[in-house]
Amino acid sequence: MSPLIVILLVLAVAAVLVVGGAVFVSNQKRGRGPELEPPATGGGVLAPPRPTEAPTEAPPAEPEVAAPPAPVEVEEPPVVVAPPVKPSFRDRLAKARATFAGFLGRSKIDEDTWDELEEALIRADLGVGPATALLDELRAQVKARELETGDQLVEALKAEMKLRLQVDDRSLHLDEGRTNVWLFVGVNGVGKTTTIGKLGKRQTDAGHRVVMAAGDTFRAAAAEQLETWANRAGADLVRGAEGGDPSAIIFDAVESAAAKGADLVLADTAGRLHTKTNLMEELRKVRRVADRDPGHVTEVLLVLDATTGQNGLVQARQFTEATEVTGVVLTKLDGSAKGGIVFAIQTELGIPVKLVGLGETVEDLVDFDPDEFVDALFSA
Ligand code: GDP
Fold this sequence. Notes:
Layout: H1 3-30, H2 89-92, H3 94-101, H4 111-123, H5 128-143, H6 150-164, E1 179-185, H7 192-205, E2 210-213, H8 222-233, E3 236-238, H9 246-260, E4 264-268, H10 279-290, E5 295-305, H11 311-323, E6 327-331, H12 341-349, E7 353-357, E8 365-367, H13 370-377
Parallel strand pairs: 1-4, 1-5, 2-3, 2-4, 5-6, 6-7
Antiparallel strand pairs: 7-8
């Protein structure tokens, strides 16, 4: 072998050794465990030594990840919105109905019949005046032999009640092209804020642009409550500081409505006041301010809680005197056995009951329908 070949052979062997060593080192690096965590620095606490033994349990096998399927156009199922169910007087007036239930199905009319009828009318809170007037009329019909059986008496009673509840106009007034203001007045807790919320939704659904004014600055939660309703109804809200001046807030709401071209301001008011100011004086002022141009007060709705019965009548007198009430909203009729207050309000004060609350949800504010109401009271 020539020295040249020997040298070439030595070089070739050396090259093989060098490349093999490098591959070995790199494989060693790849095959080693996870990188060591950096030493703990905070507080000089040393990381506990790592266990040198391999974990006894094998780590759970990684689930096989399937390649995501190609996006497929899925047609969204149509959202089925159930039409709002109008609550029926019959279903919601269970308590008031019970007052008259014992009365149906009588065969004859005797003294007991009159006693029980009188008691039922007073229990339903018609008030002594309207109850006596009704009974007098029915006695006259019996005397004239127009009525002979218990069923006939009930039918005559219903007809009389419906007649006495008739009014010429029960509509809510709204002048086109004006900034209408509907004021809601009434003592604390009767349901003013809730009524504004329910009615606001109805008015926006009917195409009106509504601004709600959080004029009940006495009750801490009233503005938040109204805000929730405004969002639900798609109405705007104007609110001020707690304890602030209700007239100022309502005036701001009117200005804001006029600037936006909104045709209806639903204005909440306080049922009590922080200051010593007389509530009725304050409401007079609220009404005056709300009626100042561009504002135009077209409804002052007195909200009464049906469960308070005849007490509502006392409130109605005071509020009417201060604010020229144009209609009554009778709330909580669903929980009341005293629906008879409707008669006292209409016959003694001459104020039409325009709306009634038959529950707490948005659909539960309905137009007052005297025929449906009376039929519900006497339905079996
Ligand atoms: P406000 O102080 O006059 O504003 O009274 P709110 O609007 O806060 O109502 C007082 C309570 O009465 C709330 O819990 C309402 O949900 C409830 N409420 C209002 N209207 C009705 C109704 O028609 N039926 C029933 N069952 N509850 C009602």
